[in-house]
Amino acid sequence: MKKNKFKPGKRITIFFIFFAGLFFLLGLWQIERGQAKTVIINQFDSNLKKDPEYLDKESKKWERVSVEGTWDSSKQILIDNVIYNGVAGYKVITPLKIKNSGDMILVDRGWIKRSKFREDIPNISIPENNVIVSGVLELPELGLVLSDDLVTKEWPKISQTKSPSVLLKEYDEGTYDLILLADPLLENSLEYIKITPTNMMPSKHYGYSAQWFLMFFVLCLMYVWYGYKRNEK
What we know:
By secondary structure, this protein is α/β, with parallel strands linked by helices. It folds into 2 domains: 10-41 and 201-229; 63-182, no CATH class. Helix content is 30%, strand content 27%. It is built from 3 helices and 8 strands. A 5-stranded mixed barrel has the order 2-4-5-8-6. Strand 4 and strand 5 form a beta hairpin. Helix 1 (10-48) runs antiparallel to helix 3.
């Protein structure tokens, strides 16, 4: 019996090289992303354990800070469509005028349940007294938006995004480009929703990586099988 030779053909070989290389590189890319997310999460968890430092211009995303100032209850913003435990509601963003400064920072005071009728704004009133607020600095992304009308006209305004690039346009005062997520122990805080530094955990990236490598392995087997099968007599 004549032994089959491995001759898959030029076109199939080109197809194999392209897609096998693509699958393998995508697998490596997902591993790198998983490792990068692990570093971010570890750094974030480490920052949460630190004592807060007083806010300044050098403060960065995910740092724990504290700041003293006065609430401005007249210019609050509600972030729409925030689901918590299966219930629709808002995140409440309240400006804090920083003591001995002309600047202010937007503070996320927490989540509040939406009223039965959307046109009824929930009670978000807060005394305009002097407070010290501590928490974590965050920089939310714009995310997917389906309309150019992201913020309503009247105060308190309702926004479709928590991105500072949108919210800061609603204020004339000098404002930090980071949002301070207030600690749950803050007086006048609302329902606290813990933030995560990434929307996809490392384990998911590693799962995607395994899928790409599996596709690479299957393609290799199919290429070898076809190379011999094609030349059977």
